[in-house]
């Protein structure tokens, strides 16, 4: 398994500002993902964070709005840029460990409220 | 595109009753199926992972079955407790790592 720490756990932000969410894993992992969970909805994959290269974004998500970094095998950041109330969601980091079992583990999430 | 459906959307039972949560998916070409628990405002906790070659997995009071041919998985929770109150999510894992999630079943266990 993996222990995943996300910061911040929650924040209230003003419209037009940007916020960076950090994801730290206690072991090296091959795959890291960022998900969004809008209020009352299930999870939607934003992007796959690739170590040493640009993230792979899903349809409907773009780098200018959600820039992602992954400088090494244990850490990634997601920035939510130029926020609007529609960005109010829980943002979750997810990893697959190097055991290649296919099992995914999630962080506690970062709950953002945009006013 | 893989569609994952969870029925019922909500369930309320008295303590001690067994829980049966259903998950159906449209494309049987899956790699894994994973059941998660989510407490309000929190992240996801992995409960059980069933790989495509398996038919069931068990962990304590939890048992999950998988029938790929019919596109169904069922999560059984025996002798429910108030601490089991949460939303349970089913996620299907195709070969390209892009999990498809169901909308979840919200369970309330009454003391």
Q: Could you explain the architecture of this structure?
A:
The complex is a heterodimer of chains A (115) and B (111). In chain A, the strands form two sheets. In chain A, strands 2, 4, 5, 6, 9, 10 and 11 form a seven-stranded mixed β-sheet that branches. Chain A has a four-stranded antiparallel β-sheet with strand order 1-3-8-7, with no helix packed on it. The model of chain A has no long low-confidence stretch (mean pLDDT 92). By secondary structure, chain A is mainly β. Chain A has strands at residues 4-7, 10-13, 19-25, 29-37, 43-49, 56-57, 68-72, 75-80, 89-97, 104-106, 110-114. In chain A, 0% of the residues lie in helices and 53% in strands. The radius of gyration of chain A is 13 Å and the shape is globular. With 111 residues, chain B is mostly beta strands. In chain B, 0% of the residues lie in helices and 57% in strands. Chain B has no helices and eleven strands. Chain B has strands spanning 4-7, 10-14, 19-25, 32-38, 44-51, 56-59, 62-67, 72-77, 86-93, 100-101, 105-110. In chain B, the strands form two sheets. In chain B, strands 2, 4, 5, 9, 10 and 11 form a six-stranded mixed β-sheet that branches. A five-stranded antiparallel β-sheet of chain B has the order 1-3-8-7-6, with no helix packed on it. In chain B, 34% of the residues are buried. The model of chain B has no long low-confidence stretch (mean pLDDT 92).
């Amino acid at each position: 398994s993996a222990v995943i720490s996300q910061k911040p756990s929650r924040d209230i932000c003003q419209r037009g500002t940007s916020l960076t969410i950090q994801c730290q894993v206690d072991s090296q992992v091959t795959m890291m993902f960022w998900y969004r969970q809008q209020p009352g909805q299930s999870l939607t994959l934003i992007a796959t964070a690739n170590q040493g290269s640009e993230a792979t974004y899903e349809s409907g998500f773009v780098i200018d709005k959600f820039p992602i970094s992954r400088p090494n095998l244990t850490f990634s950041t997601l920035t939510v840029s130029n926020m609007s109330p529609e960005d109010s969601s829980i943002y979750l980091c997810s990893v697959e460990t190097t055991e290649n079992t296919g099992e995914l583990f999630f962080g506690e999430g970062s709950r953002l409220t945009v006013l | 595109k893989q569609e994952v459906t969870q029925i019922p959307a909500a369930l309320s039972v008295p303590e001690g009753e067994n829980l049966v949560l259903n998950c159906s998916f449209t494309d049987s070409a899956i790699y894994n199926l994973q059941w998660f628990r989510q407490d309000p405002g929190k992240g996801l906790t992995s409960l059980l992972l069933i790989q495509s070659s398996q038919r069931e997995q068990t962990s304590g009071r939890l048992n999950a079955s998988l029938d790929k041919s019919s596109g169904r998985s069922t999560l059984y929770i025996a002798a429910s407790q108030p601490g089991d109150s949460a939303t349970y999510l089913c996620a299907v894992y195709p070969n390209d790592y892009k999990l498809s999630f169901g909308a979840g079943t919200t369970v309330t266990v009454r003391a």
